[in-house]
Amino acid sequence: MINILTYIVKFIPLVISTIVTFVSVFPASEARLNEEITEQVQRIAELEQAYANGEIAPVDEASFFDGDLKAELDSGIKFNEICFLATHNSYQSESTETTKKLYRNLSDLTFGLVAANKVDFVSETLTDQLNCGIRSLEIDIEVFDREGDVSFTCMHSPNIEMTTTCYDFELAMKEIAMWSDNNPNHLPVTVIIEPKESFLPLEDMKKFGIDYADEFDAALRETLGEKLFTPADMLRDYASFGEMRKADDWCKVSDMLGKVVVLLHECGTTEKYIRLDPSIKTQAMFPMLRYKDIERDCTSFILANDPDELLEYEELAVENRIIMRTRTDSFTKVTQKNLELAMASPAHIISTDFPPRTDNTPDSYVVSFNGKTVRKAN
Q1: Are the C-beta atoms of residues 157 and 95 closer than 8 Å to each other?
Q2: What is the DSSP letter of 202?
Q3: Which of 250, 279, 328, 373 is 20 to 30 Å apart from 356, CA to CA?
Q4: Least confident of 79-83, 195-199, 238-242, 354-358
Q5: What sign does the CA torsion over 167, 374, 74, 248 have?
Q6: CA–CA separation, 154 vs 151, rounded Å?
Q7: Are 112 and 325 within 8 A, CB to CB?
Q8: What are phi and psi of 51, to 5 degrees?
Q9: Distance between CA 373 and CA 378 in Å, rounded?
Q10: Residue 332: how many CB atoms within 10 A of its CB?
Q11: At residue 352, what are phi and psi to the nearest 5 degrees?
Q12: How far from chain centre, in Å, is Cα 320?
């Protein structure tokens, strides 16, 4: 009984601190977000001017490939024969000190079940990531509907984790499009779109339903224009992805240079999105599905985030010529086992929170393919 009382007394200050911190999180996050909204607008304007003035040199795309890129392109390497290093939550900027404190308190209260350093994860800007050779990004989106005025924004968790370099989604797409204009022969960039469903939505924040999916498709077509590589572009004369996969006829990478491929992360609207057109030919995004969907005609990309679980379905996925995405780590949680499994897997998109960066030091932990970010798929 004495031990229990001692435990309770010890944790009362921590519980009080956690409650006070939680109440303080939103005002701190909102203040930071308002700063970052302004910063994004300024950064895009400055980039636009710099590109127009010819102040930003194109990257050497071949320098990111583990092998002879020209020879592979000349030989007709296909999209499902190439592997890209990817980033997760590619918009995430540094969390506020209040949010960091909240997670430290929660970690203490749950004896480490909630990782204290989970919010220490930070991504560079999209432009910096692309300049470092990253060719697959992930962006979370939220929908705001203010009496019919619909806009799409990007953040991880309203109220708690709102720090972002990509708040205005259309500006984020403009950032990618400008970089692409400056590097017209870049390898195709995939952008995974993950609609979020918050349990603490902000005012006028709505669930990403099928009505908003139509508007989102329209926004993609408008902001990316001819850079958008659609399912119809990939299918060509095939009636379905099942038919295309059976023929082992994914597009050649050389036909996709300078293009952006947008993937819809599995969500509550995915099946409705597919039902709009089961062939997916009229859609702007490729639905990302799960293991159970490997043999469906509409399947092109699947999520296999756990590389350990991927082993169970690997043979079936390979037989069906599916493009797979897996992860080497999760936020700041790193295991050698997951890294090795992901790297040895046949996945085509390998996501990490520790990619090559502009600010890496010699002792930084970095995931890469022999120092590169693109290679032939296993």
Answers
A1: no
A2: P
A3: 250
A4: 195-199
A5: negative
A6: 10
A7: no
A8: -65, -45
A9: 14
A10: 14
A11: -145, 155
A12: 24
Looking at residue 208, what is its pLDDT? Answer: 92
pLDDT for the residue 309: 82
Tokens for 247, please give them.
């023929």
Is the CB of residue 243 less than 8 Å from the CB of residue 72?
no
Determine the pLDDT at residue 107: 83
Indicate if the alpha-carbon torsion angle 283, 288, 290, 294 is positive or negative: positive
Alpha-carbon gap, residue 329 to 135, rounded angstroms: 18
pLDDT classification of 63: cutoffs 50, 70, 90: very high
Contact between 373 and 187 (Cβ < 8 Å): no
Q: How far is CA 344 from CA 79, 308, 324, 327, 360, in A?
A: 19, 11, 13, 12, 25
**Rounded mean pLDDT, 242-257:** 97
Residue 160 to residue 111: CA distance in whole angstroms: 21
Are 74 and 338 in contact by the 8 Å Cβ rule? The answer is: no
Q: In sequence order, what are the beta bridge partners of 137?
A: 191
Angle at 253 (CA atoms; ends 350, 56), nearest 5 degrees: 80
Please name the amino acid found at residue 58.
Answer: P
- Beta-carbon neighbour count of residue 142 at 10 Å? 25
User: Tokens for 75?
Assistant: 């030989």
| Dihedral over Cα of 78, 343, 165, 62: its sign | negative
Contact 260, 229 (CB under 8 A): yes
Comparing CA positions, the residue from 314, 378, 295, 375 lying closest to residue 69 is: 375
Secondary structure (3-state) at 115:
coil
Averaged pLDDT score across all residues of the chain: 92
Confirm if 161 and 99 have CB atoms less than 8 A apart: yes
Count how many residues are written for the chain: 378
Q: State if pTM tops 0.85.
A: yes
Q: Report yes or no: 139 and 191 within 8 Å, Cβ to Cβ.
A: yes
